[in-house]
Predict the structure.
Amino acid sequence: MNNMIRKFVPGSFVKVYKLQRAKINVMKDFLYDYARFMRYSSSVGLNTKETLQAFIVKEYHAVEKGMALGNPRPGFGEVRIASLLNAIEVHESKYGGDPVLDIAFAGLQEYSGFNERNNISNGVTERIKSKLLHYKQESVSVGGTREISKSEITEALDFDFGKFIKSRFSIRDFSEQPVNTADLLAAIDLAKYAPSACNRQAWKVYLIEHSNKEFKSKILDIQNGNKGFREQISALLVITGKLSSFGDYERNQSFIDGGMFAMSLLLALHSKGLGTCCLNNSFTAAKNKLFCNIMNISEDNVPIMFIAVGHLKNNFKVAMSARKTLDEIVTIR
């Protein structure tokens, strides 16, 4: 039938039709993304526990960053810290205590002590002192700042990073040996040290184990880049970003932070001698809805990437994946 249509319909008409269809599809997906972001993000207010906590993390991290400067200004950030205290009080009223508040109070305690040593007293510092009097915290090491030495970093660099990173390949030919879940969790525990916007860590990982073959197959059906080797995939890691952690001007941040986390996880898995293959999640609106439905998660979660994981064979082939030259990717100004 398609061949008959091509025979009688001019090629120029087909091109115009495809272009218009592409424009319509882009607009439909754009409107879906807009509606989803406005529904879940913090743009419309801190009306959920997740958006409120993301705001608290963002603001307490501003305190940490200020205290980490070489020469902090005494009394800095008074307006922002007042907003942070207001948010903490709302959280205590609605949801009670939480580890997020523990970290916030630890940072505020350091800030309060810094201002006291510099003879700074204002409404914010007094509010902090009042809050700390009624707050019982077992450890203050969870937030604020800590001093490190240059040697702590240089000693950790005693290996050939160039050799390490050049030895990572996208692998599509795994051994039959199942991947241990404990090894995957250990790699995820390393990847969580990836940088994120104001330390909000707006990522989630769904670990689909080797034994859960039926569910793994349903998830892989959504993604088109795994044909030919999907039966060899031992475990599947599904990475998503959280829209609720970001506001209006940060509409793309869940993808940026999620991408940095995904790369950190790839390198962590590589460091454990496991093979990986990135399966990208550039979904249409319809596929995104299907993904969330099968995963049984809200559309606050935006799909970032699947990572196929397996053990290495003794010998196997990988794509050459030729890289661009520095001249093609670097502009020096």
About this structure: Residues 11-40 form the longest helix (30 residues). Strands lie at 203-208, 235-242, 274-280, 301-311.
